[in-house]
Amino acid sequence: MSPVKNVRPSDGLLNVRYEIRGRLARRALELERLGHDIISLNIGNPYAFGFRTPETMRLAMIENLRHSEGYVHQKGIFPAREAVVMQQQERGVRGVTVDEVFIGNGVSELIDLTLRALLNGGDEVLVPSPDYPLWTAAVNLNSGRAVHYACAPGQGFIPDPEEIETLIGPRTRAIVVVNPNNPTGAVYPREVLEAIARIAEKYRLVVLSDEIYDQVLYDGAVFVPMATLVHDTLCCTMSGLSKVYRACGYRVGWASFSGDTGNAVEYLGALELLSSLRLCSNVAGQWAVQTALGGHQSIRELTRAGGRLYESRRAILDGVGRSKYLRLVRPMGALYSFVEVRADAVPVFDDQSFALDLLENKHVLVAPGVSFNFGSRNFFRITNLPECDVLATVFERIEELLDARAAAAPSLQLAAPAHKARSR
Hints:
This protein is of the alpha/beta class and 424 residues long. It is built from 14 helices and 14 strands. The strands form three sheets. Strands 2-8-7-6-5-3-4 form a seven-stranded mixed sheet, with helices on both faces. A five-stranded mixed sheet has the order 12-13-10-9-14. Strands 1-11 form a two-stranded parallel ribbon.
C-alpha cells in the first residue's frame, strides 16, 4: 500500500480569507456549547436579532410555491427582473431591460460569477480598503489580483479619486465601489462618485457597484446610484433582499447592467453561460422581489429618528462617546460601525488579540479590522442590529477590558478624550 497522504486544499485558497465566520466565530460556537451566552456582533443577520421579513413578501412566496418547484430561466423569473428594471428606471438609470438583469443566490454568488466571467490570470481589480472581504476573496479565487485603494478614517472613510487613478495599470479591468459602505457606514458624496465614474470611463474599467444597503441611511444621508453617473463604460449594480428587506435566508440578489452594454455583449453572454451552468437561483425567493421593490419600504421606519436601527446606532455613538479609549467616524448608512481604539490611549494594541480576549473574557464577538483587508490594527466592526440595552452592555464590557489593558501599562498617560468622534 502507498503511504497515507493528507488531503490538501487547493493552492488557490492561499490568499482567500473570510474571518467574519472564521476562527473567532468557531470559538464563539464552542463557548456557546459550554453554556455561555455570547453576544454575537460579527455578522449583519437581521433575523438573529428579531427582525422579520415584511409579511407581504412572505405571502408572495407562499402564493407562488406551486410555481417554484421546477427550474426557471437562468437569469431569473420575469417578474423579479422586471421589478429591478422598474426600480432602476425610477432612479434615473437609462437603457436597462430585463435582458440586462441577472438574479442570483444572493449578491455573494453574483460577485463570484461577474468576476469569473471577466478576469484572466493576473488581471487586477481595484477594491476599497477596508472592504467587504468577499470582494478581495472572489478576485483571488478567480485568478485576479486585488489592488486596494485607501478609504482613510481621517477622510471619513471616503476614497480619494486622484489616489485611485494612480493605482490603475495595464492589467486593471474593474473597480469595486461599496456604497453605502460595509464595514464603515460611509455614504459617498455625489462628487466623489462622479469622479470615480469619469476615471472608470477614461480607462474603460468595468464598474462593480455593491449597493446592498442602498436604503439603509441615517440623518438625511443621500444615496446616489452609481449607474446614474456611469455612461461610457459598463456598470454593474448589485443589490438584493438580504439587508433592506431583512431576508438574508431567501438568498436573492440581482445584478443589473447599464452604461456601455453594446460593447459588453460577449461578456454578458459569458455571464449567462455561467448562470446556466448552475441552472437557476432559488426560485421561491424570487417571487418576493416584485412585492419588495414595488411595495411599502418599511426600512425607512427603522432608520429614521425613533426607529430601531436609528436608536441602536445612537446607542453605539453614545457608547463610544462615553469611552476613554474609543472613537468613531459617524456611520451614515448600512448596519455597522467601524470603531477605532485610540493609539494614544492604548499604545500597544492588536485587533485580533483584543477580539479574542473580548470573546473569552467578556463573551462578546466582534470582527477585528484586519478581517476587512485594512492596514491599521486598531479597529473592530460591530453591527447595530441588537437592541439598545444590549449595545450598552457591550460597551460596558469593552470599557472594562480596555481599563484592564491600560492598567497593565503603568506608564500609560491617557490623552484627554476630546476627539472621540470625527465629523464627516
